[in-house]
Design a protein that fits this description.
Layout lengths: L15 H34 L10 E5 L8 E3 H14 L11 H27 L5 H15 L3 H11 L3 H23 L6 H15 L1 E2 L2 E9 L2 H13 L3 H11 L3 H4 L4 E6 L7 H7 L5 E7 L2 E11 L2 E2 L2 H34 L1 E3 L70 H9 L3 H4 L7
Antiparallel strand pairs: 1-2, 1-9, 3-8, 4-5, 4-7, 6-7
Helix pairs in contact: 2-3, 3-6, 4-6, 6-12, 7-12, 8-9
Length: about 450
């Protein structure tokens, strides 16, 4: 018999090693194929999802996707016209020169107005809001009536502001759109439930719906002790309401105590300071007290009536609470809507180079706040800055247990000064001293 070959012959089963090698080869081919497929899918998703920034057409300063038909492109011509109007409204006699600080300020105002005008029209379209010419005319007439006493004054405004009547109509239309969006969003907020009203009442009953004890008092006030003593002498003979009506106007120097016989109703204890507080709230009904010196004046008084603490019932304040909660819920809903609206439309807005503002998705904020002194970010400034912004935005933690459905922000922590010696204690702890470190010398 001849020598056996190392290769498997026909019909012979491959060895385990050869089978494993073939399986590994197939796995590598499968992985390569999957990788190619994955890259292709990702590229298709990126194109479909708009991950690549669209280019702004030549002659335009901004492109806004999903805008109403014919409104998605802001041309350089529109920008230049609005720039001139914005410069005029800022008080400048002519448009500032490009490159100047004033030009950058006016340019931003002009761009933001144009961009946000498209946003508003686009949002109105999405909400199904339409504005008629009649609505614009009515609103414009009201504006003219409020701000321009004569037709000549309005004409002068058009000339000095560099606005055409069409420009004004567009701005008035945006004002009407804004009002209608706000109304639409607010109307979607349901009225507060009975449970919400009741919960709010229970939470605020002690502080808001409880009328503290008070007193009705007749007073005579004067800087002259002699006049007050003279008034007291007359009232000691006759302290009837009729005589108070004669004495108070004659001897009291305070306008509020001259009327109604010196009667002041519902004076709460917490509004008073000593010694008047102790004397007034320690007096019996009908007892003449004084003269008492208080804040540079002399007082004589008589307690007429004691008003006990009173808690308003839920039925008394239910409408008030319902109205307040509805307003708060509408305000919160509007704030959420505005944040979402701005985020969505900013993602759809692309600006040409040199025209990027915060409303553009391709806007890159500066590394440091524009208002911060340059010295804040210099290693060795010639003149150190007196104040610099915080490197991180401070958080506002709430006191535990103070966050409720009615008070979503809760009560903030009270900022207290560091106790005397606290810094020394920290140093000791860091050095291993103090009781915790066991290195102290207590007991000496």
């Amino acid at each position: 018999m001849g020598a056996k070959s190392g290769k498997p012959g026909r019909g012979r089963k491959p060895t385990a090693k050869a089978a494993a090698s073939k399986a590994a080869g197939r796995s590598r081919l499968a992985l390569i194929g999957f990788a190619v497929l994955f890259v292709g899918l990702f590229a298709a998703y990126a194109i479909a999802g708009g991950l690549t920034q669209p280019s702004v057409p030549a002659g335009d300063v901004a492109l806004i996707k999903s805008a109403p038909e014919g409104k998605g492109n802001i041309s350089e011509e529109e920008f230049e016209r609005n720039l001139e109007a914005a410069a005029s409204q800022s008080g400048a006699k002519k448009t500032p020169k490009p490159g100047s600080k004033k030009y950058e300020e006016v340019k931003e105002v002009a761009l933001v107005e144009l961009i946000e005008g498209v946003w508003l029209r686009g949002q109105a379209e999405e909400l199904g809001i339409t504005v008629t010419e009649k609505q614009v005319e009515t609103e414009l007439e009201q504006i003219k009536k409020t701000n321009f006493p004569t037709p000549a004054a309005y004409k002068e405004f058009l000339e000095t502001s560099h606005l055409t009547q069409e420009d004004v109509n567009d701005r008035v239309e945006l004002q009407v759109i804004t009002q209608q969006i706000q109304t639409t969003v607010s109307n979607e907020v349901p009225p507060p439930t009975k449970a919400e009203i009741s919960a709010y009442y229970d939470e605020e009953k002690a502080s808001k719906y409880t009328v503290k004890p008070s007193r009705d008092v007749r007073l005579v006030v004067n800087k002259s002790k002699a006049k007050v003593e003279e008034a007291l002498a007359e009232l000691e003979k006759d302290n009837s309401p009729a005589n108070w009506k004669k004495v108070a106007p004659k001897f009291s120097s305070d306008p509020t105590t001259k009327t109604q016989g010196g009667l002041q109703k519902e004076i709460p204890e917490e509004l008073l300071q000593e010694p008047l507080k102790k004397d007034l709230y320690g007096a019996a009904t009908g007892e003449l007290i004084g003269p008492v010196k208080y804040q540079g004046n002399y007082f004589i008084f008589e307690v007429v009536k004691l008003n006990p603490e009173k808690v308003k019932s839920l039925s008394e304040v239910e409408k008030e609470i319902s109205s307040q909660l509805q307003q708060e819920n509408q305000q919160a809903t509007l704030e959420e809507f505005v944040a979402s609206y701005q985020s969505r439309w900013r993602a759809r807005t692309f600006c040409a180079s040199g025209f990027e503002v915060k409303q553009c998705s391709n806007y890159k904020p500066p590394a440091h706040p524009a208002s911060a002194p340059a010295a804040c970010y210099e290693a060795h400034p010639k003149t150190p800055a007196t104040a610099c912004p915080a490197p991180v935005e401070p958080i506002k933690p709430a006191l535990p247990g103070t966050i409720t459905p009615q008070k979503k922000e809760g009560e903030p922590f009270v900022q207290r000064p560091r106790p005397a010696g606290a810094s020394e204690g920290v140093k000791e702890a860091q050095l291993g001293g103090g009781a915790a470190g066991g290195g102290g010398e207590a007991g000496e």
